[in-house]
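User: Protein folding is very new to me. Would you mind checking the protein record under this note? It all follows right here:
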Amino acid sequence: MSRSVRVIWDERLTSYDFGPGHPMAPVRVELTMALARDLGVLAKVEPVDCSPATDDELALVHRRDYIEAVKRVSATGRPELSYGLGTVDNPAFAGVHEASALIAGASLAAARAVWTGQAEHAVNIAGGLHHAMPGSASGFCVYNDAAAGIAWMLEQGARRVAYVDVDVHHGDGVQAIFFDDPRVLTISLHESPRTLFPGTGFPSETGADGTAVNVALPAGCADAGWLRAFHAVVPPLLREFQPDVLVSQQGCDTHALDPLAHLMLSLDGQRQTYAALHALAHETAGGRWVATGGGGYELVQVVPRAWSHLLAEVAGEPVDPGTVTPQSWRELVTLRTGEVPPLHMTDGRRADYRDFSEGYDPADAVDRAIMATRKAVFPYHGLDPMP
């Protein structure tokens, strides 16, 4: 078990709510925390509340005029379309600044706990709003909490921070904020920008000295291909970069049931990713790991189980995938959503994969995606692109 683990949580984090019918419904976070609690996961960690990020903290990654625009929308509920506020993706709502600043504050609290040594690992599952840009909202994201946490740690003296984003969508906001900063290695594995929002994240986007890394996977990619790509790119780069801290965005919208994307991972494949990132945090970053949530829009079948596994992995005591979901949680699901809840903590998949070191197949679309990334960035880091 890890030495000290903090889960940043405040019931007010569910106030980040774009309204009925919006895919990013806060019930997904509510059901996650309830499942983790009922499984006994939260008994093994130290829950910590948080306060909203200050304007100065938000200004580490956002323009001041944008922060003021968010405040105006927050006070009036009226759109500011020039700042991306009031669109279909990011509807305007009263209180948006307070809700968004609290999420950023939660990720800053996680970063502080890890950087100051109060905790070895810390997680904010309400965070991971990786599309927010310095001067605009985008893709359900108003303030970029992960970027704020990274920027704060850099201000405190961090020499190198690695950010690994496993959301199905490209982590474009975090990449944009640190694109020219060689102290931050951003690695994003996502569905190809040719078939999915935001239309960026090609391997050719390499940033400062190859520190922007993009693995653009073909639609339909499942556990075996995704895990092959992850292990072909992420471990060698983290081992070479040797970050002071690992920050991860754990969007679970790579799942086959997610309604907004086209990858085909199972819960079991995602769980393997959490374990791999945990091991890499200890191997390459002295155990310092800040994890956030992210995307995930299958609100009952996927998000609560995926992120409960994440919380358990962060705590160092993984949940057996064969575990039956607690009756108390299933009753809550029915009450809150009217849906039939899943019965087990697994999709029943083995999630096996073939390691890239066994050879490159140019006829395979996943292998071509892997090789495009390795050719684009590995030479910057003194690594051989060939397996």
Notes: The two ends are 34 Å apart (CA to CA). The CA atoms of residues 55 and 67 lie 7 Å apart.
